[in-house]
Amino acid sequence: MKDKKSHFRFDFSVSQAGFILYLIFDSVILYFNIKIGLICLSLIVLFALYNFRLNRKKNKQLLEYIETLTLNIDSASKDTLLKFPFPILISEYNGDIIWYNHKFLNTVKNKKLIGRNLKDELPELYSAVLEGKSRLEKFEYEDNFFDVLVTIVEVEEGKNDKKFLNLFYFVDVTDFVLLQKKYEMQNIVFGYLTIDNYEDVLNSAPEVSKSSIISEIEKRVTDWFYNQIRSDVFLMKYERDKYLFICNKETFYKMQERRFNILEQIKEVNLYNKIIPTISCGIGIRQDSIFQAQKDAKTALDMALSRGGDQFVIFYDGKFEFYGGKTKEHEKRSKVRSRVMAQTIKEIVKHSDKIFIIGHQYFDLDCLGAAVGLSKLCLNLGKEVYIVINSYNPTIRNFLQMLLDDPQYQNIIIDQQKALKMKTKTSLLFVVDTQRTSYVDMPQMILEFEKIIVIDHHRRPTDWIEQALICYSETYASSVSELVAELLSYEGIKLKKLEAEILLAGIMIDTKGFTKNVGVRTFEVATYLRENDALPEAIKEYLKEDLDSYVLKNQLISNLQILHNNIALVIDYSQACRDNVIIAKVADELLNIKGIDASFVVCKIEDSVLISGRSNGKINVQLILEKIGGGGHLETAGARLEKISIDEAKGVLVKAIEEYINESKNS
Question: Does 458 carry a binding-site annotation?
Fold first, then answer.
């Protein structure tokens, strides 16, 4: 019994402190009055004896309680429990702590826990019991780590009285965890860094400034890695506008802490260049393979460039993480890539027996324009082609009817069921105006085709169509209709008036009548379409909204809320809106309000909540809506949320806006 008592520890700190204070106080009294001092001393001694006996009694009672626990084990095992060299804690089933050994007391640094509840003191242990876990790994307490074994034991308190207790064994794994973290910090980090617009920047500057611009960019890159990060890193320039670097994860975290502010430092290069330089970087992280890290870095860089550049993209553990990307894409002057794409696409079409064209959910005018343009290309090559439409936007109804009235197109527009019956192994599938698998109008179509070509003008999302043979995505383009019309112009194909007008309508819708996201190449394409008899005034007539839509639009605007003094938010609580075109128009209209830099409109249509975002370029709505599963461009973006209430959708959106604003402040 005596040996067992040594394994119990009770906290006398409060009594001891009080006893010492009493002695000091009594010493002072003795100095002034011996008689009163002796009386006080006698009382202190009696109090000390009482306290000592009381604690011995508590000690004995608790020891007897522990020793009477059946725990379904024999007395030898019970003795082992009491002498166990690892920390042990026992609590009632409701979480009340009733006992722990000396080792555990050292672990919690003499903190008195008996009588307290796990829910308040050690909530992770309490949660483990509620969830029925038998093991809790890497439980952290006071900078130490433990693997905790959790056992529920049955205790007999009497002949017919049973209860359950929680028994926790703590195995100290602090050294292992710290070693593991140290090892993890040595993970291989491989990065590719490229100057997005090297040629355009130099071409925009006087000849005498070009060498200075090159030197300044290189100086800022090397300074950031070697002087600002100040860690072990290997940096090499392997082409005039390309770098690679290798470091460990510890160095990577230092870059991340700075939020890769090299992005902003490069944009500050101003030596009479009219175009601001930007960079993109792809980073791959692996535990043991530099080859795989390099492949991941290449994938990340491709993602960064396909999203418009001016950003760092990290590809780690199968997931992408994005930093930057807040600069508006600049139109590429060179047409080499588009000409190569035109030739490549034509060759693939030639070697396909049937061609099918699909778009995103609720086929819109840009989708239809691209589909009609590609149909013309295929027909011109003598191929059998079909436009597959499942759901469509009301704005295309007039144009769709005109196509169905046209003898050449009336049999080209089909549904999914018919398309799947007609396809063969050598058939080709075009996906236009989206590259997200979740946004495709008929996802089943993607799974059924071996040959897929994607043509899009949005930033690449994380769930892009990876199996595509070609992903022709140009984020600078105003619309996918512009990209397709440009391909047709290279081939010198003569368009019918209806075909040209549908293509032009697609461009006009996405550019808001040539007022947004337009470049030189947009007007060149428009000229080509005008030469093929497309009339803008006729298109405007087709696109006029009816009175009901006009009234509904103004009703929605009356629900306006302002966030952060420059963000407009409209929530359609009436659920009167049944057309996502109205949502987009309201978002556009809100930007006309003075002081508004971005707008969001939230409407519930059937089981989905649609969110439309617009910006004047000062706020990146694509980055905001990407946080909730959407996407698009810096100035135009959208999101679709399933199985969620409109209030929940508002909460999710506002949270994403707050995160974006906080990130912008910290960058």
Answer: no
